[in-house]
Design brief:
Strand content: 15-25%
Oligomer: single chain
Pfam families: DDE_5
Number of strands: 12
InterPro entries: IS701-like, IS701-like_DDE_dom, RNaseH-like_sf
Largest sheet: 10 strands, mixed
Shape: globular
Protein name: IS701 family transposase
Number of helices: 16
Helix content: 40-55%
Length: 424
């Protein structure tokens, strides 16, 4: 599986050197390293310095978008499903300084507060076979797009302007649909559900959606515009149905659900406000739903539950493939690192999906042999232990210790000299 994936992207590199370095980087991203960056990966794979990997990310001639297209085709080859869901969400990476592309003080769900961070929107393909990330878009705040000198220093292309997160999501969804990706639904959180332009674009493409909306979201009913939380208070007791949003780590996620028909500008589709109620706390959540054809409540609930697959993708791609551990500052370098990290995670996700497909699970999700199917974590452990043969001899480790200390000494001397120059 791994060699087939590497062979798929090999043609994107005109020279053998970057092709070899890309393979090394993906192997390093799949390794069980405590921290993954050019230094640690270069030492792990046996290079004398990180220069080769840094050249791959910064100066080598190859197009990360073409590799992204290969990644998408790889995922679709194994996970394609006509009823698949395209799930969009953003995640932030905490960063120091101000020179890394896209960084500013902004809210990020990673920290749960406003922090100096870099935010990107990702698209996950979710089907009955499995799920994996297939596209990415870096969010550039107005503090960046309004400062062309700053953008030039980070090698941001001139044609890249400001785009909101829903606009980035729309671009990615339309890109994968134009490529012929089989999918029937889109899902996302309130950032995307509250955006009318995104909803209109999805309706125009005939793509159904179940998008979370805020409690203050207004919908058009036969009685006129109404807030979502006001409509929820009028739902009769008999309208609530107990349904599972999908199987989680601890079993099914049971909620009470209700559906309210609403009207909208598109007379050809079916619009609803779906309300979810926590069976323990009574907490409510709201979803704006559209489908080109009538569908039962259970289908909309299943699509809403699939939104959590993007969270699982973030967790495993960061924990297993170093998605958030890049130490790059420029536009191209960020896209190259993230694309190869998504490629590494897709290898794990597809392998795990094929393992589950070959198993006939019991009611509690285990196989007849009393084992759960192989997970991404376990596949990574086996791949690292049985396939990857890192260089670990003493001389190599000592050479790297010397190289790190010399590089750090030069950096310290440079910082001290700059500080002395800037002092009055």
């Amino acid at each position: 599986m791994f060699e087939g994936l590497m062979g798929r992207i090999a043609g994107r590199f005109a020279r053998v050197e970057p092709r070899f370095r890309a393979r090394q980087l993906v192997l390093g991203l799949l390794a069980d390293l405590p921290r993954k960056n050019c230094w640690t990966i270069a030492e792990h794979v046996g290079d004398a310095t990180p220069g080769g990997l840094q050249h791959l990310l910064g100066r080598a001639k190859w197009d990360a978008d073409l590799v992204r297209d290969d990644l998408r085709e790889f995922v679709l080859e194994h996970l394609a499903d006509d009823e698949a869901v395209l799930v969009v969400d953003e995640t932030g990476d905490l960063k120091k300084g101000t020179h890394t592309v896209g960084v500013q003080r902004q809210y990020t769900g990673t920290a749960g507060r406003i922090e100096n961070s870099q935010v990107a929107v990702y698209l996950t393909y979710t089907s009955r076979h499995g799920h994996a990330g297939i596209d990415r878009a870096l969010y550039l705040p107005k503090s960046w797009t309004g400062d062309r000198d700053r953008c030039e220093q980070a090698s941001v292309p001139d044609e890249v302007g400001f785009a909101t997160k829903p606009q980035l999501a729309q671009q990615m969804i339309e890109r994968v649909l134009d490529a012929g990706t089989p999918a029937a639904w889109a899902a996302g959180d309130e950032v995307y559900g509250d955006n009318p332009k995104l909803r209109a674009a999805l309706e125009k493409r005939g793509l159904g959606y179940v998008l979370a909306v805020s409690c203050t979201h207004r919908v058009l009913t036969a009685a006129g515009p109404q807030r979502a939380d006001h409509l929820a208070k009028r739902v009769p007791r008999r309208a609530w149905q107990k349904l599972s949003a999908g199987r989680g780590a601890k079993g099914h996620r049971w909620y009470d659900w209700a559906l309210v028909a609403i009207t909208a500008g598109d007379p050809t589709g079916h619009q609803h406000l779906m309300i979810r109620r926590n069976r323990t706390t009574g907490e409510l959540a709201y979803y704006r739903c559209y489908s080109p054809r009538p569908v039962p409540l259970s289908t909309l609930v299943k699509v809403a539950g699939s939104r959590w697959t993007v969270e699982e993708t973030f967790q495993s791609s960061k924990g297993l493939a170093g998605l958030d551990e890049h130490q790059v500052r420029r536009w191209d370098s960020w896209h190259r690192w993230v694309t190869l990290a998504l490629l590494a995670h897709a290898f794990l996700a597809v392998t795990a999906a094929l393992e589950r497909r070959d198993q006939v699970p019991t009611d509690d999700g285990t196989s007849p042999g009393g084992l759960i199917p192989l997970t991404c974590n376990e596949i990574q452990r086996l791949f690292t232990a049985l396939v990857v043969r890192p260089v670990r001899d003493t001389a190599h480790r000592l050479r790297w210790s010397t190289w790190r200390r010399r590089h750090q000494a030069r950096a310290r001397h440079s910082h001290y000299r700059r500080q002395t120059t800037l002092q009055p």
